[in-house]
Amino acid sequence: MFMGEYQHTIDAKGRLIIPARFREELGERFVATRGLDNCLFVFPMAEWQSLEARLRELPFTRADARAFVRFFFSGAAELEVDAQGRVLIPENLRSYARLERDVVIIGVSSRVEIWSRSEWEAYQAKADQSYEELAEKIIDF
């Protein structure tokens, strides 16, 4: 399970250090793709394969299913960790998530998300206002 929040920077070549705790669970090779809310989703290979199998079940006759699958898979890239614990984030993914220098890497249960620090702070500010309301709607304590 992935959890926690880490602040990092992307170097001039587009390389990002993945936190050691996340590297252990992600493995040496994993998949990153366009996520929702302008962040990147990062999946360990086993989770990616499970997700791919579920998405394959979507009816290709539905335009919304085709559109989502196209968007999700066309942005996907297999990443490999180098000896320094870094991965090269492809330009198309850096552009999509507005990743320039300062980034936030968060654990979200079965996946990791990579956010531009400014996008993450804006998202948090908005989400903080409705956190308790959301909890009431989706969680039955």
From TrEMBL:
NCBIfam families: division/cell wall cluster transcriptional repressor MraZ. This is Transcriptional regulator MraZ. InterPro entries: MraZ, MraZ_C, MraZ_dom, MraZ_N, MraZ_sf, SpoVT-AbrB_dom, SpoVT-AbrB_sf. Keywords: Cytoplasm, DNA-binding, Repeat, Transcription, Transcription regulation. Forms oligomers. GO terms for molecular function: DNA-binding transcription factor activity; transcription cis-regulatory region binding. CDD domains: MraZ_C, MraZ_N. Pfam families: MraZ. The gene is mraZ. One of its GO terms (cellular component) is cytoplasm. Gene3D superfamilies: Transcriptional regulator MraZ domain. Residues 5-47, 76-119 form the SpoVT-AbrB domain. Belongs to the MraZ family. Its main location: cytoplasm. GO terms for biological process: negative regulation of DNA-templated transcription initiation. It is found in: Cytoplasm, Nucleoid.
